[in-house]
Amino acid sequence: MVSLQSYLNDPCATTSIPYWKYKSIEVPPNMKIVHQREMTDDLLLDYNDEPYFRLYHDLKNIRQATAQDVEIVSGGASVSDFVQLINRSYTDLSVSAEQIENYRHTPVYRPDLWILLKERDTQTVLAGGIADYDEEIGELILEWIQVLPQYRMRGYGQIVVNTLLSKMQNTAKFATVSGKVNNATKPEYLYRKCGFVGTDIWHILTRKQSHDFIRK
């Protein structure tokens, strides 16, 4: 069991997920989660690998990003707004209303950290973000950051991320974010432009079914 102090000393290298989740997680028997420093080629014989980056922000220097044609809506968005945004932003995943609603029933839920970016004239949703706040340790956690495909490369992602960071700059002690290394939209590039740093990679290893079959 990782101690709270160990996590605070180096959160991204200590656990693959935020501390509040780590305290209650049970890793399934067909899965391993290992840091890059413990990753070996031998593991790939029995497991499929999905690498995730995990980045850190000290909230000291937040790069402001704005645009005159958009506005941020905070705290008043519905679950359906975010379900539609998320599902329209990806081709390889989808979420249900129940999944997103569950975020509202956790100890780290903050309604003001659910934000939408809308076009000022038409009120069309262009992007959005969902973040959590762990009051116990002062951690801001970015969970869902999306920009609709047709509105990417215009700086809207930076507006969403920097808005969330700015909201908690005088409250949280630090922020973390994670995502798939092999995501085609390259979210790591966005977060680094917003001041996140780090080199920690975590490998989510799932046992290959063929090997399970052979062992039965």
Describe this structure in words.
- This protein is of the alpha+beta class and 216 residues long.
- It is 28% helix and 30% strand.
- It is built from nine helices and eight strands.
- The chain has helices at residues 4-9, 11-14, 19-22, 43-46, 79-89, 97-102, 156-167, 187-193, 209-215; strands at 31-35, 47-57, 70-74, 114-119, 125-134, 139-147, 174-180, 197-207.
- It starts with a helix and ends with a helix.
What would the keywords be for this entry?
216 residues; alpha+beta; eight-stranded mixed sheet; 8 strands; disordered C terminus
Backbone CA Rg: 18 Å
Contiguous helical run count: 9
Q: Which runs of at least 5 residues are low in confidence (pLDDT < 50)?
A: 211-216
Helix content: 25-40%
Strand order of the largest sheet: 1-8-2-7-6-5-4-3
Strand content: 25-35%
The helix/strand series, from N terminus to C terminus, equals HHHEHEEHHEEEHEHEH
End-to-end gap: 31 Å
Class by alpha and beta content: alpha+beta
Basic shape: globular
Mean pLDDT across all amino acids: 93
Largest sheet: 8 strands, mixed
Query: Number of DSSP strands?
Result: 8
Topology:
Elements lengths: L3 H6 L1 H4 L4 H4 L8 E5 L7 H4 E11 L12 E5 L4 H11 L7 H6 L11 E6 L5 E10 L4 E9 L8 H12 L6 E7 L6 H7 L3 E11 L1 H7 L1
Parallel strand pairs: 6-7
Antiparallel strand pairs: 1-8, 2-7, 2-8, 3-4, 4-5, 5-6
